[in-house]
Amino acid sequence: MTMCVFCEIINGNIPSTKVYEDDMMLAFKDLNPVAPVHFLCVPKKHIESANDVDELNSVYVKHIFEKIPEIAKSQGISSYRIINNCGSDAGQTVMHLHFHVIGGVELGEKLI
Ligand code: 5GP
Ligand code: ZN
Asked: Does residue 34 lie within any of the structural domains?
């Protein structure tokens, strides 16, 4: 079975610039940042998308959201936008659940 790109990053087969890691999650800088601070938070379990979050794996999502403030702080921001693209029509290109954390610039109020 071929692993997805984020599983490969988690397993160390593809290099990344890590900003945080523990036994449940990895946070690393996005390859194509859209803001001065742009990192991705991924569970260390292959969950395809937000559509696949359930009562068994939601602990990963809980953990990621508990950690985001401290990771953001370590990157010098306390104001940021969290984005999850769910499904290809919503712009999801990597089918491994991930949360973009974007900041370091005035983002404005418009969502899209
Ligand atoms: P999506 O469009 O699925 O919400 O976001 C996927 C994100 O993953 C994109 O912003 C893209 O730049 C990033 N990305 C894709 N491949 C890699 C990679 O190999 N390394 C890193 N660091 N980011 C990646
Ligand atoms: Zn994966």
From this structure: yes
Query: pLDDT per residue over 43-97, tens digit each?
Result: 999 999 999 999 999 999 999 999 999 999 999 999 999 999 999 999 999 999 9
What's the pTM? Answer: 0.98
| Domain residue limits at 36 | 5-103
Residues 18 and 26: their CA atoms lie apart, in Å, by 7
To test ligand 1's pocket by mutation, which of 8, 14, 31 has the most ligand atoms within 8 angstroms of CB?
31
Ligand 2 mean position to 70 CA, how many Å? Answer: 24
